[in-house]
Amino acid sequence: MSTFSISILFLLGSGLTGQVPSGRPVHPGAKPSPASEADAKPVTAREVRESFVRTIGLMEKVRGSSLGKPALPAADRPATRAEIVGEMNRLFRAAQPGFFFTPAPVAHDASVFRIDAAQKSALDKLVTLGFVAKIGPLAVGPQPGLTTKQFGDALGFFMARASQLSHLPNSRWTPMLQGPEGSKGGG
């Protein structure tokens, strides 16, 4: 590919994203939207609790049994990462009997985790099983809490893994469930 073609692709790509290599907006006079300013605020314990109430409701529909209520208080103070990890760990333990298989462990370095010592083992277990991103803001973030967007990403990551483990895929399309004769590509 010629240099001209590469530069055209770069300009098209930067035009689509509205960014130039420096990361500044294309229109320097543009002000941040109220939504982007709201994303910078820490998520409150009330918001985290409400999110977990909805998450638990969805998981209970799939399981058909109760997973309990969130332990977080409905307070208007910023939620800590330790509280979020504690609730994820509680929910993981409650839902674990409904999981169909154990995933391959995720390799990670637990020494980079920035969390209270009381929650470090729970975070290590959740990262190892793929319920929390190994270098995401929940595990290694510098602030004691998360923004709304960071919490949403962490909860989505958690729910994706929970749904993956609580649904047994069709063995016809899943090589790891086919056994030795199915993995040879014969059928």
Summarize the structure.
By secondary structure, the protein is an all-alpha fold. It contains 8 helices and no strands.
For the termini, the CA-CA separation is: 40 Å
Largest sheet: none
Count of runs of 4 or more consecutive helical residues: 8
Radius of gyration: 21 Å
The number of distinct β-strands equals: 0
Can you tell me the residue ranges where pLDDT is under 50 for at least 5 consecutive residues?
A: 2-21
Domains, number: 1
Topology as a string of helices (H) and strands (E): HHHHHHHH
Strand-pairing-aware structural class: mainly alpha
Look at the structure and give the mean pLDDT. Answer: 81
Please bin the fraction of helical residues.
Answer: 40-55%
> What is the beta-strand fraction?
under 5%
Any idea what the shape is?
Answer: globular
List keywords for this structure.
mainly alpha; disordered N terminus; 0% strand; 187 residues
Walk me through what this model shows.
- There is one protein chain.
- This protein is mainly α.
- The chain has one domain (39-169).
- Helices cover 50% and strands 0% of the residues.
- The protein has helices spanning 3-17, 34-39, 45-63, 81-95, 117-128, 137-140, 148-165, 179-182.
- α3 packs parallel to α4 (81-95) and α4 (81-95) packs across α5.
- The longest helix has 19 residues, at 45-63.
- The two termini are 40 Å apart.
Protein topology:
Blueprint: H1 3-17, H2 34-39, H3 45-63, H4 81-95, H5 117-128, H6 137-140, H7 148-165, H8 179-182
